[in-house]
Amino acid sequence: MPILPDTLEPGLAVVFIGTAASRRSAEIGAPYAGPGNRFWDILHEAGFTPRRLAPFEFRTLPRYGIGLTNMAPERAGNDDILGPGDFDPEGVRAKIEQFAPKVVAFVGKRAAQEFLGRAGLAYGLQAQRVGPTAIFVLPSTSGAARRYWNPAPWHALRAYLDHLDHTNADPME
Ramachandran region of residue 116, left (φ > 0), alpha (ψ -120 to 50) or beta? Predict the structure, then answer.
């Protein structure tokens, strides 16, 4: 059983894919709930939501075109305690294929590495796709990853989605 429920439905603009629920998120049943986590702040700052949502409001995200899932849905804790068997790239790929969002955005390089099967990823838009779905890699919002924090890729994702909305064309095509 997943630690946290997905918020997925057809027609979403973006699905954010985390690594695993934090211990705090698992305790309260809401994603990105750690006291130092920047997820809800950057969603608002970058223009994905009209105000800063609280973690317990995660079920409202689809109304903003946003979905959530995790690469290691049955585990909780920091990346350093996760092993290769904890990740479910095939399950995540099936969800992407089923719901077909415009973009999937990995919240942290570890989640993206486990999905794409390679290290050395840069932040931003990736050359790979899952069908028509574009892939972004974003800096982790976790307080534990604070030294790597950079909001620019989050803003670039928002600009990419805005471009798609205004042109109905993918700049990668």
Answer: alpha
